Amino acid sequence: MKTILCVGLALTALTAPFLLTLYAHGPARAAAKGKFLVYVGCGGAKQTAGIYAYRFDSASNQFTALGRAAVADNPSFLAVGPTRGLLYAVNETSDFGGRSSGALSAFSIAPATGQLTLLNDVSSGGAGPCHLAVDKTGKYVAVANYEGGSLATFPILPDGRLGPASAFVQHKGASINPQRQEGPHVHSVYFSPDNRLAVSADLGLDEVFVYRFDASKGTLSPNNPAFAMTAAGAGPRHFVFHPNGKFGYVVNEINSTVTAFAYDAHTGALDIIQTVSSLPEDFKGDSAAAEIAIEPTGKFLYASNRGHDSIAVFAINSKKGALTSVGFVPTLGKTPRNFAIDPTGAYLFAANSGSDNVVEFRIDHSNGLLTPTGRVLEAPAPLCVVFEPTD
Per-residue confidence at 2, pLDDT binned at 50, 70, 90? Predict the structure, then answer.
């Protein structure tokens, strides 16, 4: 079914930047202490595309809009690592330097202003890069190239810039959906909690791949077992490890489901526990699942639905890893491609790319449900939200 080949900005900030809109729903409950810079990657028109910054105090739930921190070409996914002061972004394009490739960008962060300074751009090694992750040592970045059907790793140099690729993996094959699965489409890549493995979801092949990661060299090699299968036509997109290290979950874009796996940290094996729908039973329209996350206590899992425009909430059985549906919360906007839970676990931010806003919800840790705080960040086609600690 598949083959695996392993081979070792010039514009000023907007004069009218993001607007912070408050609705009269009452004050949000104070969270644990934590101060962050919040970065939102935005696509859309070139005049507004880029990475926008906010200052966020989770204890008081106060925001300060800092405007456009950097101009970037379709920065559809962002990542920060354990080394503070650095941010990395994909440029989800198909032409970089005259070749069929997207790009990765490295930025330094100015803590006082939130502004980003471009350090360098490198080819991502394939067209349409859509996801990236920084390893636990802060020395390597891994990227998933959706259109190219490949993934690669890049060393982070001492000054934060990206060096030439240290590993490249090309997937081959197809699955049953001729429109979406005519070839490999690597949609994401993640490092395991112990940094020994890299997990990559391929929407085009209906497989979740597992690679051994050598953190001293930045190389990838097939694990044994090398992958886990999802249902044919499911279209695995994004993955998350449970905080207890015993389970993993993948959200399947095409058939709008979530698959739960038992995870063996020693062997890297992923064994399916169950697959559940991310949509209500009576929903009849078109929808595609997108993002997945677990709040820090590990009690609840969330998945976004584009079309139904909601966040599906699931309770997690801590002993068996199985999911039970809790409910569905409207995102108060269109097309929630991404959402993020703040590091304190108090709030969830839904990025509604189709309605140009990021909506804040308070997480109820007794049942996992979400309540809008009334805070809405207006943003041009928001695609990704990340947090950089500042305290």
Answer: very low
Name, in order, each residue with C-beta under 8 angstroms of 274's C-beta and a sequence gap of 6 or more.
Answer: 259, 260, 322, 323
Contacts of 103 (CB under 8 A, 6+ apart): 73, 90, 91, 93, 96, 121, 122, 123, 124, 129
Length of the chain: 391
Residue 140, token pair as written in the block? 């390597």
Tokens 């001729």, located at residue: 178
How far is Cα 218 from Cα 135, in angstroms, rounded to an integer? 9
Whole-number pLDDT of residue 99: 86
Whole-number pLDDT of residue 391: 80
Cα dist. 244→131, 224, 297 in Å?
24, 22, 9
* Residue given tokens 């028109």 in the structure block: 45
Closest CA to 361 of 353, 197, 351, 125: 351
Taking the C-alpha atoms of residue 151 and residue 156, their distance in angstroms, rounded to an integer, is: 16
Structure token digits, residue 211: 């690679």
Q: How far apart are the first and last CA of the chain?
A: 49
What is the predicted pLDDT for the residue at 386? 98
Phi-psi region of 353 (alpha: psi -120 to 50; beta: other; left: phi over 0): alpha
CATH number given to 2-11+35-288+338-346+380-389: 2.130.10.10
In this prediction, residue 139 carries a pLDDT of 98
Number of DSSP helices (H) and strands (E) in the chain, helices first = 0, 30
Using alpha carbons only, what angle is made at residue 104 by residues 234 and 343, rounded to the nearest 5 degrees?
70
What's the rounded mean pLDDT across residues 135-139? 98
Query: What is the structure's pLDDT at 15?
Result: 31
Residue partners of 236: CB distance under 8 A and separation at least 6: 187, 201, 202, 203, 206, 207, 208, 230, 250, 251, 252, 253, 259
H/E/C letters for each residue in 139-188? Answer: CEEEEEECCCCEEEEEEECCCCCECCCCEEEEEEECCCCCCCCCCCCEEE
The helix (H) or strand (E) run that includes residue 9 is none
